[in-house]
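Batch 3, record 17
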Amino acid sequence: MKLKNTIIGCLILIISNSLYGEEESSIPEEVEQIVITANKEPMNPGNTTAQVTIITSDQIDSMAARNAAEIVATVPGVNTASYGARGQSKLVSIRGSSADQVLVLVNGKKINTVQGGGVDLSLINPDTIERIEIIRGGMSAVYGDGAFGGVVNIVLKEGSNKKLNLAASYSFSYFNSHDVSASIGSGLGEEEIFDFNLAINGFYTNGKYDYYSSDYNEIISRENSDGFGGGISLDLGWDLIPDDKMRLELNSQIRGSKKGVPGMEQFASKNAEMEDLFTIGSINYSWMENMLGSIEFDFSFQHQLRHYSDPDWYLDPVDDTHKNNAVASNIKISRSDRFKFMLMNNSIGYSFRYDYLDSTAIVLKETEGESTMGKYSNSAFYRGDFHLFQKKTEDLYSLILSPSIRYDSVLTICQVENIERYENKFSWNAGWMINFDPKQKYLVKGNIGTAYHLPTFDDLFWPDTGFAMGNPDLKPENAFNIDAGMIIKPFTFISLELVYYRQLVEDLIQWTPGAGGIWRPKNIGNALLTGLETELKTLVDLSGISCFLEGSFNYSLLISRNRESGIAHNGMQLIYRPEHQCNVSITLNHYNGHSLNISGAYTGFRYLTEGNTKYLDDHFILNATLSVKLFEAFDFIVYGKNLLNISYIDRRQYPVPGFELGTKARYTF
Amino acid sequence: MNKFHFTCVIFCFLLFISCENPHVYKGSIPEGIPKKLLFFNGLDETLSIIDPENYKIYNNVATTEQAPNHILSRKDRIFITNSLSNSIQVFTYKNDNITQTGRIYLGKDLNPWMIISDGGSRGYIPCFVTGDIAIIDLDKLTVIDADPQTKEIIDRIPAGECPEGGSIINSKLYVANTAWSQDIFGFKKGSVTIINTSTNKVVKTLWIDDLSYIAGKGANPQSIIPFPDKKEAHVVCTGIQGENDGKIVIIDTDKDIIKQVLYIGGSPGWAGGAINHSNKTVYLTGVSGIQAYNYDTGDFFGKNYSGLGWYIWKGENSIMDFYSGIYYDRISDSLFICRFNKNTIMVIKKMENGKYKEITQMETFNGPQGNIIELPD
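Prediction for the assembled complex:
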């Protein structure tokens, strides 16, 4: 009670002082928007109410990651699952969510497909990434459907800095793996009103590796894990009015891969192949500081094709193609108003998205090629940011309130099954932050709100294949979220972040076997996910040896409990959710640009069965990266992954490789 | 203690608690239970015990491997067929303890369904994926005709497509081939492969589906109930799950021809079925409910639900209500039924008015399945 009164007293004091504040000289000119848009300034955890982690390209370079999944895995509250070697699927989970419950954006554009299955992060080359923003916690009021466990926004490198920049890298590692990437970007024109960036990358791996069989009695060779792929992206920008006041951008990207799919350990598929092709094109227009405020508009088209074939599948040959298409458009009008005591930013917007799936697997054979499964989403949203402040002695105290509401109207049509589903969802979120210090040394913040996730087309319409079958009667998953955290920087060389969260999930969708062993999805009931995310960061200047030491340690506690009433496993931990996770990273950076990074990741035990009768052992993976700057713009990197050669799995029957060694050469100008 | 030290202490504490051991839900069998029934929880991959006298369940008394599918009891040994691990676990039951004492790894890609004992030392295992029959030695716990180095089977008896259940009658093994087809998302023509167990050679393939076969809607024969005294094998054909096309095909085992077809309807199964020989009743599991028929006369018991089939006990949902195992208890004259999707063991009993009444439901772990067997004293 004492604590509650203190908090309420502080809030009243801050708000009342704000109302009577006299000076406004230290007022920030702009309140940061939580809504992610492509290639804008990175979010600042100290100036947004969301629990967000930013990973920059420098950090990515220091860890010698091979794909985007390895990067996001280092963030507290995030867990990734690997289905095998270099080219195999890597899926992400945030705060105990499923992969489908994480919204993945590339340059602010949603790339989750309506078909479902999560976004495979193994196909995104780290050298193309400018930064990754990871927002932990459900927030459908801001992002709509799918932002259930959290959001991952991958911002790719672009040439909007107008300077000529060139980059190239080549990497060679175990399993005869080769990675290559190159990019060029520059400003063009007399006043550099045009800019462009062209990037290209490719990879090849033979993927073959040995592993201990599940009973650890013998060493088995994992075959059919080879793959190759690549991508090309071109971004063009045109400053219609200088200083980004009016800007037009065209972004396009194509990437594809072809890989072997080794299948389950006990039921290997020696000749199965998967081809992926991802294409996206978008137009972004922004007109800032006009008479209405700011207007942002974008239109995008994306096409994701997946072709899977297995001529030697045990029962019959498999040859399926899934074509996921989406057309989306957003318009947002924002206005900032400054008052004596407050800076206010209000945004309203409208989004439209049409998702379309044509799949030879998900429809009845007799209608193959004529299937129409579509989802029309119309959304309207409002978001406000109210920055209340006061100037007292020499410190600036501020309070940010960020209310958001969103209304989504979704129509799902499956003509094959003659089904129409209407869903109208209202979501809300209230974020708050109290900043006790102008340098953001002490701040507390939190969120309360709702999230939802609509069933995917696989969940709804998967036909009876004898092993699995969709369920058109599924309800959306709903969640109520609350989190609160603080960031403390007691010394210049230490930063500590601590976040508590709680998510109550209703109508959780889970595939379970039913009659005749046929797997079907159903709304199983309630689940409670609660936990703690902590991160300690330090930066120490060791001038005696001309180095500075960068360290980070994070620990995540996740208690995920089944709350379905009337069953024996009520109260038990949900499967594949590690209760404990830790990441530690120490980087010694020499003033000349050389660096040595040693990092470790501990993943606690994970239950395999809903009754918590079996579990996967915990494991600790140790990695190291040595980067030597040979010339001004040239780095040579040697890295080792899983140095202790630990045998572990993330998913049953999908062994992952042990020790891997690699080298990389990188030129950046 | 300054802030830095305090922070370090907090992190050390967190690290310490993260190293705690997981709690695994494991049970034990109490002493003094006169009769014990054994079944498995397919999803939680454990074995559980029923005390039928006191309506009590002792959960998770042992752990199976992935996708347990069948129990065979032989002397003091219990054999569990694990379909996804391609293995047979061997447990020994002694002094109220079930302890794993052996394991037979059959080899990759097989998907073993069950063990059919010949009464001697041989066990025949239909392999769903490869469409053949593996043979193991139940005494030596070895695969017969296995490669001595890899331990993988090099010689199996070919059966039909996707074999599941089977029985041995008078030195002949009858195996039901479901003929599932991924290509047509349905069942092709179902058949029964007849194998001479003296020579391990196929002597005949008997087609269950006749000229009325519609593409994708095969009979889906899943199990075979042996009646050696009657010289009959009753083939339980499940048909399409949730539809009303279940039937019992009776084979004359002398001539190996189809003798009679009982159109019972529904989607019956017998992998976990039961027989009450005193009134010659076969109890069938499956989706939607419990079905029963007289194995002598071929009469059906219960009520004929319009368009759904004959049931003595009808569930609520024709797709999701899955009755996955049944045991007839002579002493209490009641039926113990596994409810797969409800995670309970239900006990029902026939009343004087001929209708069945629910006596109790006992909570168990995830995915209870039969066959349910009685443990030896």
